[in-house]
Design brief:
This protein is mostly helical. The chain is built from 6 helices and no strands.
Length: 172
Amino acid sequence: MALISLRIPDDVAARFSALAVAEGGKSALMRRLIADALDVRSPCAAPLQIGRPEKVTLRFRESEMRQLAEIAHRRGMTRTGWIIALVRSRLGSPVQPSRDEREALRAILRELNQIGANINQVARAANAGVQQGRAIETGLSEIREARAIVESALAELRRVFDDNADYWQTRR
């Protein structure tokens, strides 16, 4: 995705920020304005989560309730949680993770945090080596190793998100 950056007067920026609060944030508003200007619609625009949640009552047959319970259980969710996730996915909310997916994402986040800490240690050692006139070759293997782990974690992260998107975009 491309990044567009621009400079505007402070007062205009403040007014735009105030307007953007009700539009899902500055980036969301800017994307919508650009799409409107180009007469382009994104395939699935996420709804704004404004206001407090309201209750909806649904009636299902007994057989449908059993099916819902089974589908939700396979997904690691409650019936209500699964129905809410289904509706939100159809309204354009980007991710409706199951319990297993949330655990996988947490594990990836922990791993990436550890890698960040390792990279910081390597950077400190490299900076100390440069200041003392030593070569920094010794840290390159650690950096290569960290890169491989990051690439692996990113691949797993992509898999989790792709699996999630596939689940909610298909009929199961």
